[in-house]
Amino acid sequence: MDINLLTAQREFINIPHNNPLDVAIYQGGYGSGKTWCGSLLGILLATKYAGSKGLVGAKEYELVRKTTLVSYLEHLDNMGFLLGRDYTYNKIDKIIRFANGSEILFSALDDPEKYKSLNLHWAEIEEASQISDSSFKQLLGRLRNTYIGKDWEDFRYRLFGHTNPQPDKGWIWQRFVENKQDNYRLIIAPTTNNIYLPQHYVESLKESFDEEYYKINVLGEFGDYASGLVVKGFNQDNIKELHYIDDLPLHLTWDFNVDPMSCVCAHVTNGKVFYFDEFILENSSTQRTIDAVIEKYPNHKGDIIINGDASGDNRSTQSEVSNYIIIKNALKSHYPENKIKFHLRPYNPPIKIRIAAFNAMICNSKGERRAFFDKKLKWCLYNIYNLKYKVGTDIVDVPTYTQLKSDYTLKFLEHPFDAMSYLTEYYFRIRME
Predict the structure, then answer these.
(1) Domain limits at 334?
(2) Alpha-carbon Rg of the chain, whole angstroms?
(3) How many CA atoms lie within 13 A of 273 on its CB side?
(4) Please, is 370 exposed, middle or buried when counting C-beta atoms within 10 Å of its C-beta (0-12, 13-18, 19+)?
(5) 74 vs 228: CA distance, rounded Å
(6) Which one of 252, 356, 389, 430 is at 20 to 30 Å from 30 when CA atoms are compared?
(7) What pLDDT band is residue 366 in, cutting at 50, 70 and 90?
């Protein structure tokens, strides 16, 4: 979307819908006016709606203090607001208070406990891509303050942020592109469209950066998501509207991990795999997961085939056997007439072999696609879009304990992919000629 800076700013500040909640992300490159525009919108809201409550935050407060807060104070000065008469700023409490009763609080967003009790009318996020989806949802839940008065007739709760695009499909991509709602808006503003920047500055950016970096950090476009990803060649052609068929063999492919437990459902036919459902359950067990599968598909008529982790997530032989015994007993009890089959390796092959087999099904050297996914598979697709190698290695980058504490969604990385890839490796292993 190629629009000039002023058009982008109007699109960001105005609301083109009647939904009581407006959620917008202003995405641009270096010097595109993201912070400038966001702080202007915050002041406009505070001055228009007397008594309103706003929050401005970033992952860490230092980022707010050095960038966003400075922009707010500069705007107030340039707009002729007098400190002590039109507004006050309390450095200790980190609050700007206006003469009309409105308040703007500046805070870190790394700890939801800091703002869980707030009742807000609007909120702004600096460098939105740095915070987690859980922090975004927590902040969304704080937009609950009531409003009264004739000046509030056109009021909308607003959550807005600004960011540089990131080279992965994180929560911004998922919420504002892939699963976009009508009241969620993504406004792209390239640095090159900011007519107020010196021409030599814009030209120096093009000379300094390689093509991909320039595309992301200057033009504000989304990056090359295949770079560093484990799954290669995946595109929209791999996503289909798939349907469960009760008389086809039902494949249940497993990765045994308590949090989350992963079971993915598929049909395998004519040399292709169709993943149509997933059971990715938090703090679950093998028994609860297989019970959930049976509850959803109680009248299956065909064979039921079990694929998955041969080692039971590195547990003992006794433990890994019991996992499959639990599954077998549950299936035999509910489907006494069905054939229950176990197609498992005696040991798990190296992950490189599983990845190669999976990628060959996604898209092989001839351009053939033989693995397809229903669009409702939230966590399977999350892995396809986000599971990466460690930089400069062929080692899958598993989230650390510290990363998991700051973003709980990262715990869903790896395990659903393992479940899917056990199946493709079993039937479609790449062999040396």
Answers:
(1) 236-428
(2) 26
(3) 27
(4) middle
(5) 40
(6) 389
(7) confident
